[in-house]
Amino acid sequence: MSSILELNSLSELKFHIKTFDEKLNEQFLTLPVQTLLKRRAKHIDEMLVSLWKMYNLHNTSMSLNAVGGYGRRALHPRSDVDLAIIIEQELSPQQQEQLSLFLTHLWDFGLDIGQTVRTLSESIASARSDITIATNLLDIRCLVGSKKHALTIKEQLYQNELWTSLSFYDAKMAEQQVRHNKALNTALYLEPNLKNNPGGLRDVHTIMWIAQKHFSLANANALKTIGFLQQDEVYELLEAYDFICRVRWALHCVTQSAQDVLLFEHQAGVAEFMQFGQGDNSQLAIERMMRQLFRAMTRVRELNQIICDSFKLDTLNETERGNLQSIDKYFSVCNGLIEVKFTQAFIDKRQVIRMFKLIAENDNIDGIAPQTLRLLRQTRRGLLGELQDYQGCREEFLAILSHPKGLRKCLGLMHRYGVLAAYCSQWHAIEGQMQFDMHNAFTVDEHTFKTIQYIDSFALNKKNSLTYSVYQNIGNRFALVFATLCHHLSGKQAIENSELSAIQAKELAEEHLLKASTTALIYWLVANQDLLISAIQTQDISEPDVIKHLAKTIGSQDKLNALFLFTIADMMATNESYWNDWQESQLTLLYMALRDALKQGIENIFEVRTVIRENQTDARAELVKAGIDEERLSQFWHSLPNNFFSGNSVEDIVEISQGLLEGVAGTTRVLVGKNGDNGFTSIYVYTEDRPKLFVDLFKTLASSKLKVKDAQMMQTKDGQVLEIIKVLDHKDEPIDDEPRIEQIVKRIYRAIDQKDRPRKLVTPRALKNFDSPPVVTVLHTTKKNRALLKVNTLDDPMYLEQICNLLSEQNLSIHSAKISTLGECTENVFLVSNAEKSSFGHDEQLKLVDIIEEEIA
């Protein structure tokens, strides 16, 4: 190149740099990107050395050193040029002036320069106190001057005096975790940060720095020769790293700035620069480029974890294998990581999916051991078909979706390690798929997974939130999860593609041999996924006709509950700000209006009959298997109303039926259900009906400092009453204290026998300052001698006592009752009749409404 001394003006200097960069860009498609980076670094080296000599600084004791990415000879078109100027003693006034002129002239280059001026001892002290400075100096490279400075700093860093290998490793891992947390632990942003997101360039640099520090490597490329990585991992890592580097080079050229975030506005230009396509083919070009980028970043993140975990376990020997626990003949757990016992474990493909189920079942498992993860990767690459081809894999996958902790932990690992893509081709097709709209922040697969995470989080919400209350009343949670997993299988997030996704979801459900009602619900949810959000955005939800039409489309309370939760989760997973207070208020208003409309008798009776038939079939099989006499079971079920089978899960039907049939026929039974994943303690009472029984039980529970969150009262055909009550303690937690459970059961028996008079109820302190009068509505019922009343109140036990007392004073009998907590409010529905069981006229119903509203208010 021409000497910098020959460039007579600033414009000539900038033109010289621009010409060289253009020459490199012409070679972008013919040379490896690492060659381009090195050539650009070398070019800048020559310019800086010439400038250093021009100011006669080479005759001083100072040294000019490249650090950071420039020190690694990895200089992108607009990257910072980081310099470390090291001095041995205080500079003379003349040297200070020369150095000042040199630094001033650097900015004339049109480059982003970052420089420090320190003594050798100051540099070492700074490296000791700051991991970022230590890392920056790890890549120090002398350009001109005393080479001893750079060598001394490297020697100090390689030794364990400044940082031990372990302390350096821990510090870099902590830095990496902060970066990953900031990016919500995903590489799959539609506008990814090529440098700092999980799977970005920094994840590769972290691996290199840790190895450089421990093995005293002068060049990170020596990773290939020391056995730190397996050969296939080296090639895969470098291939993915090179692709990300090429995208970053193109991004710098397109934006003419040091840009690391690949924004939508730049993606077409970058795709064109990289020869993916342009013009009318622009969107397809972007999709192809971004899919390759996401796959590269996913591979980098996966290899980063394998290598970092292996390094700590095998190289640092930090963790002893003293906590080895055997699970079965295939798997064991060591220091919180699951590992296979032999390398042929995954020949049985069922064990691939089963490993993730074991992660859900065992709280002491935090992740997968690096060698097992390596074996999983090899198995994944060697598949000739899909994992779902194997029946055992399908069974284990369904078990994961049904497990209380299956979504929280192991499904995330399956998504992260590409096992979902290996499980079914439908998921593989949407992996890394772009979404072209102004709202979405994530790829199709990442958005889908985040939606599932939000669905799962509703079980952990505040106990008085509406989403928590609705989630607890979901009749078929499995269908909701399965539908969420499938809701964008068409690859696009648009209304016109929902039907295609629904068809694929139905096919997948049928391949997994799901029940007909479950498959139908999955199909309906996916096909109608935009129904509620479209309504609040495009329709007047205060119009009764709009609500009536939507209610007919939905058809049942179970569908409404599932669609409501799905819609919220889908919106929350779109981006961090899409779900807001306005959306929440509108969707809540719509939900309550539709809930009221469905209670007016719009529910689809045919769907309800299908659910009853399937629940009875499944529960009967379980009970007969448990040794229950089938004839006696049929007699017992014949006495129960249909809503017992439509309003309870198969598990609840089995638990209640088995518990009651194990007792003596005709005797009072009080049972406490097992605490499952629903977050409640269930109490079942079966006894002869009597006046005020319902309110006596309610007062007994309330005076025992229990909160009734849901209750059903059903009269049987033989004069008995079955009450199913879900409660929480005063801390909003299920009851797991056996002595307390025994005490509660004794109090219930005494209340049934009227041996105890329950204490007078009081209004909770939190509600004393609220003035919210009850709202009473008469609902439609086909029984002319019955009235169906709905009373909405605050969640105050005083109200229920008052309502029941009023009904008793009016000589009205309660035939069934349903108490549902919805956030801060309670919905009480009673089916009542008068003493003569005569017809309930319209005027009599209105009179009853007025009495209740006036007396309670």
Question: How is this structure best described in words?
Answer:
The structure is a single chain. This protein is of the alpha+beta class and 857 residues long. Among the domains are: 4-163, 2-Layer Sandwich (Beta Polymerase, domain 2), CATH 3.30.460; 167-315, Up-down Bundle (Four Helix Bundle (Hemerythrin (Met), subunit A)), CATH 1.20.120; 424-600, no CATH class; 763-857, ACT domain (Alpha-Beta Plaits, 2-Layer Sandwich). It has an eight-stranded antiparallel sheet, with helices on both faces. Strands 3-2-1-4 form a four-stranded mixed sheet, sandwiched between helices. The protein has a four-stranded mixed sheet with strand order 5-6-7-8. A hairpin with a 2-residue loop joins strand 15 (812-822) and strand 16 (825-834). Helix 5 (120-129) runs parallel beside helix 7. Residues 682-764, 788-857 form the ACT domain. Keywords: Hydrolase, Magnesium, Multifunctional enzyme, Nucleotidyltransferase, Transferase.
